[in-house]
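R.M. (postdoc): so does anyone remember the format we settled on? I'll just put the C-alpha cells first.
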C-alpha cells in the first residue's frame, strides 16, 4: 500500500487517529505481528453485535487469543449492527494496518440472511472501496466438524454440574 506520507512517517496503524478510534470504542491496540509482514492477511472477525457489552467483548477476547499465533497481520473485531466498529470501519482499519488481503470471517452459527446476504453485501462494498485489496469471505461457523465437539463439551459441562 503506497501513500504520500514519506519514508520516515510511522506506520498507518500507529497514527493518532486510529489510536483515538480504538480508545473511543474501547478496542485494544492493534494486534500486528513483529515487523509488519504485508504478505500475511488481516482477519476481520464479524459478529452480529449486541446491546450487552459482555457479548461484544467476547469477540475482542477471541481476537486477543488468536493474536499470539502470528498468522495475521492484524485481527479486527467488527459488528453487523448495534455497536462499533461496524464492518466497513473494521475493513478500513485492516487496510490502514497495511493488509493486502483481508479474510472476512462471519462469527455466525447458521447460514441465515445476516451470515450470507449481509456478508456478501459488505464484501462487495469493501472491495469497491479498496479495489487494490482482496476481501475474501469465509464461511460462517456452521456445521464445521469441530462444532460437534463444542456442542458435546457444552452439554457435558451442564450435565456434570447438574449431578
Amino acid at each position: 500500500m503506497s501513500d504520500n506520507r514519506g519514508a520516515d512517517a510511522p506506520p498507518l496503524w500507529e497514527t493518532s487517529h486510529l489510536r483515538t478510534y480504538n480508545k473511543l470504542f474501547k478496542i485494544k491496540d492493534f494486534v500486528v505481528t513483529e515487523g509488519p509482514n504485508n504478505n500475511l492477511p488481516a482477519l476481520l472477525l464479524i459478529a452480529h453485535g449486541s446491546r450487552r457489552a459482555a457479548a461484544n467483548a467476547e469477540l475482542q477476547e477471541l481476537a486477543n487469543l488468536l493474536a499470539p499465533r502470528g498468522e495475521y497481520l492484524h485481527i479486527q473485531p467488527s459488528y453487523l449492527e448495534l455497536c462499533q466498529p461496524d464492518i466497513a470501519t473494521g475493513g478500513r482499519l485492516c487496510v490502514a494496518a497495511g493488509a493486502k488481503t483481508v479474510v472476512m470471517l462471519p462469527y455466525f452459527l447458521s447460514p441465515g440472511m445476516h451470515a450470507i446476504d449481509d456478508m456478501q453485501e459488505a464484501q462487495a462494498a469493501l472491495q469497491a472501496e479498496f479495489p487494490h485489496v482482496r476481501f475474501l469471505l469465509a464461511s460462517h461457523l456452521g456445521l464445521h466438524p469441530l462444532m460437534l465437539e463444542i456442542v458435546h463439551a457444552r452439554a457435558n459441562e451442564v450435565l456434570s454440574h447438574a449431578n
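R.M.: ...and that's the designed sequence above, right after the C-alpha cells. Also worth knowing: The longest helix spans residues 145-162. Residues 1-7, 9-22, 24-35 have pLDDT under 50 and may be disordered.
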